[in-house]
TrEMBL record:
This is Diguanylate cyclase (GGDEF)-like protein. Gene3D superfamilies: 3.30.70.270, EAL domain. Residues 384-515 form the GGDEF domain. It comes from the Bacteria. Residues 524-778 form the EAL domain. The chain crosses the membrane at residues 16-34, 69-88, 103-119, 131-149, 169-188, 195-216, 228-248, 269-291. InterPro entries: Biofilm_reg_signaling, EAL_dom, EAL_sf, GGDEF_dom, Nucleotide_cyclase, Rev_trsase/Diguanyl_cyclase. Keywords: Membrane, Transmembrane, Transmembrane helix.
Length: 782
């Protein structure tokens, strides 16, 4: 059982301390009613009080044990004295008064006082000093009042001098003042008024009443058994109350004080005023009475005067302490006030900083998306027109991948400074994240806004020096005039559509929002939904366009081209859904399906006619970590040899990848025999560096270089001859796209091109048509 459980009062029966009080009253009443049993009844109750304190200490284990041991010793001493007195009386021996037995009674008071002195837990130096001073004040004041009100009148009325017996008897009530003052100190220093401390105070008062009664009994010459009986009852009540206090549950749950107990100022003022008025008044009245009666002697003067002086000195000391404490607290409050002001200032500064961080980009210090939205919302309801611009850097991911994120961050910081320098003071430039910026132009719209957008694009084109790197980048810009009929989210959506249109139109340009863009976006969204459903249903077909040897126009390879064939509508050409599939990421599952289907169709053509297969691969597919495994599984499932497969990639794949995931995949696939061709060569980022070092086997020259009639034809012949010579020097095969006439085929053959592809030879055809075409070619060959 825990202390808290032991201390918890029962809800069905009285507590142990109450039973003890009731039992003590019953035994005491029995002793009063039966004089023969009186000594034994009183002795039994004193013994019970000692036992109660011992049980309380063991049961509740109070935090401060030593004071309770002192109280236990204080109750044990008179118990021993009473036992000795009873034994002497039974033996016919009468103990003199005062005598050795009375010494035991005297020892009780210092022991009880020491116990009460240690009961309150100190809550600080000031609280301890206050309790000690107030104890002294009440003790001296009590001594004055006790002498002037009780002792001196009793002696005067009986015309009795203080005999040794009376002086010894007077020591008891005077020492009771210590007990009462100990109780006062307990109330002053203690953290709260507890029931057990109230019982201790009542016990002290009972002891004082008994000792006063005994003093009067002694002064009367020892007569009056009623007075002695009353004194014994008071002593017994005091012992019972101490025992009850030890058994009270509150003794176990007393709390540690958190600070000095604060007395109400009005009560304190009234108490001290009463002491200042009553104590000197009582002393004065006592002295005047003694002088007028003509019986004034030394004790009549010295005792009250000394006690009064000490009381006033202690009272002044206490008031000085209160003033000092008040001044100290005032200084502490001033310090706390100043500290609070500093804390509030720091908090306000921190709140401003946090607010700034919440609304600004940490890299550039520009407003972020949240602050931009707030300002766009304000501009939508403002009186002047405004324009929202969205700007995105072209190819920023490539710079991050090639040179690292620190270089990319440095580029962003420089671009932000340039953009800010091209704007007016009232315009808002925000960084939305990554390489995306936004500008809110106040009181600007139409062509003026377009002019500012083009100015921003030109500023981005300028090279940027970052460390040892000279970086070049461009920007695509979308522009939208604010419309108060629309929400902020709709404004951001529209300007984002304009930005997307700028990128789709070739980047490095400004595109203003048009309602058609929203319709196009809706169409793209529907296309994505349709593509997703079509992939689940496999609503696609693969057509093949032959690649022929220009020497004899025999088909040596076929290029797989996907066609969307909805079950509830006409076929959809690739130019209407391939770009949507790439942007949405659906090109990954679609491309994997085309690869598997084409390998299954081509394996028979390869075994019968030696025909190879070419399959287009997008940037998005090559960025997938499992692309190599997808190709291997398609080859294994179909049985097509690896050397019979050519993967066609665009130049943008190699440039955008920067030597990363795509190069890793292509290098690994070339080790097992898969060939790699660069499609649409000459229209993108043509570079001798990647032709020389990257894993490619051939190039497909874009149809834009195929010679046509007229002055341009001669220039195209020169260009295509240069490309063919370059490929030959690098040991790369060549294929020309877009061959539409026999003259073009002969010319390209004469220039040294190996393979050709175009409508002159065949349009894209189905797998069945490929089978018939190949069979006819071989029949003609033989």
């Amino acid at each position: 059982m825990t202390i808290a459980e032991r201390a918890a009062p029962s809800r069905t029966r009285p507590s142990l301390w109450l039973w003890f009080v009731l039992g003590g009253a019953a035994v005491t009443a029995l002793g009063v009613a039966v004089p023969v049993l009186r000594p034994f009844a009183f002795l039994a109750m004193e013994l019970a009080a000692v036992g109660a304190v011992a049980v309380g200490i063991r049961r509740y284990r109070p935090r401060r044990m030593v004071p309770w041991w002192c109280i236990l010793a204080g109750l044990t001493v008179p118990l021993v004295a009473n036992v000795v007195w009873i034994v002497l009386e039974a033996a016919g021996l009468r103990s003199p008064y005062p005598g050795p037995v009375d010494t035991f009674y005297v020892l009780m008071y210092p022991l009880l006082f020491l116990g009460m002195l240690g009961l309150p837990e100190r809550a600080g130096r000031d609280s301890w000093r206050a309790g000690t001073l107030e104890t002294g004040i009440f003790a001296c004041a009590g001594a004055v009042l006790y002498w002037t009100v009780l002792v001196d009148p009793v002696l005067t009325a009986r015309d009795t001098q203080l005999t040794p017996a009376a002086s010894f008897a007077l020591a008891y009530p005077l020492m009771d003042l210590l007990i009462i003052c100990g109780a006062v100190r307990l109330a002053v220093i203690g953290s709260r008024r507890a029931a057990w401390s109230a019982l201790v105070v009542l016990a002290g008062l009972a002891l004082a009443a008994g000792d006063t009664t005994f003093f009067i009994h002694v002064v009367d010459g020892g007569d009056g058994r009623l007075s002695l009986l009353n004194a014994s009852l008071c002593w017994l009540v005091g012992a019972v109350l101490v025992g009850a206090a030890a058994l009270h549950p509150a003794m176990a749950v007393a709390r540690r004080p958190a600070g000095e107990r604060r007395t109400h100022p009005r009560w304190m003022f009234a108490t001290y005023l009463a002491l200042v008025l009553i104590v000197p008044a009582a002393t004065t009245v006592s002295l005047l009475t003694a002088v007028r009666s003509g019986v004034a002697d030394t004790p009549d003067v010295v005792v009250p005067m000394a006690a009064t002086v000490v009381t006033l000195v202690l009272l002044v000391t206490r008031l000085t302490q209160i003033a000092s404490l008040a001044e100290s607290r005032a200084r502490a409050l001033d310090r706390r006030g100043a500290a609070l002001e500093r804390a509030l200032a720091r908090q306000e500064s921190l709140q401003d900083e946090l607010s700034h961080q919440a609304l600004h980009d940490p890299l550039t210090g520009l407003p972020n998306r949240l602050l931009l939205r707030q300002r766009v919302e304000a501009a939508l309801t403002g009186p002047v027109p405004a324009t929202l611009i969205m700007l995105d850097l072209d190819g920023f991911k490539d710079i991050n991948d090639r040179f690292g994120h620190p270089t990319g961050d440095a580029l962003i910081a420089v671009i932000a400074e340039r953009l800010q320098g091209g704007l007016r003071a009232g315009d808002t430039l925000a960084r939305l994240g990554g390489d995306e910026f936004a500008v809110l132009l106040e009181d600007v719209c139409g062509l003026d806004a377009v002019t500012i957008g083009e100015k921003l694009v030109r500023s981005v084109r300028l090279p940027v020096e970052v460390g040892d790197h000279r970086l070049h980048t461009t920007a695509s810009v979308g522009l939208r005039t604010l419309d108060s009929r629309l929400s902020t989210s709709e404004m951001l959506r529209d300007v984002d559509l304009a930005l997307y249109a700028a990128k789709a139109a070739g980047k490095d340009r400004v595109v203003s929002f048009d309602e058609r863009l929203r319709a196009d976006q809706l169409h793209r969204t529907r296309t994505v939904d349709g593509l997703r459903a079509a992939i689940d249903r496999a609503d696609f077909a693969v057509h093949y366009q032959p690649l022929v040897d220009l020497r004899d126009e025999q088909t040596v390879s076929v290029e797989a081209l996907v066609r969307w064939t909805p079950s509830d509508g006409p076929p959809i050409p690739p130019d209407q859904f391939i770009s949507v599939a790439e942007d949405s990421g659906l090109i990954v599952p679609l491309g994997a399906w085309v690869l598997r289907r084409a390998c299954l169709d081509a394996v028979a053509w390869h075994h019968r006619y030696g025909v190879r297969l070419s399959v287009n691969v997008s940037v998005r597919q090559l960025r997938e970590p499992d692309f190599e495994q997808v190709v291997r599984e398609a080859l294994e499932a179909s049985g097509l040899p690896a050397h019979a497969l050519t993967l066609e990639i665009t130049e943008s794949v190699l440039v955008a990848d920067g030597g990363g995931q795509a190069i890793t995949h292509l290098t690994a696939l070339r080790r097992i025999g898969v060939k790699v061709a660069v499609d649409d060569f000459g229209t993108g980022y043509s570079s001798l560096a990647y032709l020389q070092h990257l894993p490619i086997d051939s190039i497909k020259i874009d149809k834009a270089f195929v010679p046509v009639e007229g002055p341009e034809g001669a220039q195209q012949v020169s260009l295509i001859r240069a490309i063919i010579d370059l490929a030959r020097s690098l040991a790369l095969g060549t294929v020309v796209e877009g061959v539409e006439t026999a003259d073009q085929a002969r010319l390209l053959h004469n220039l040294g091109c190996q393979l050709g592809q175009g409508y002159h030879f065949s349009r894209p055809i189905t797998a069945d048509a490929v089978e018939r075409l190949l069979a006819a070619d071989r029949a003609l060959a033989y």
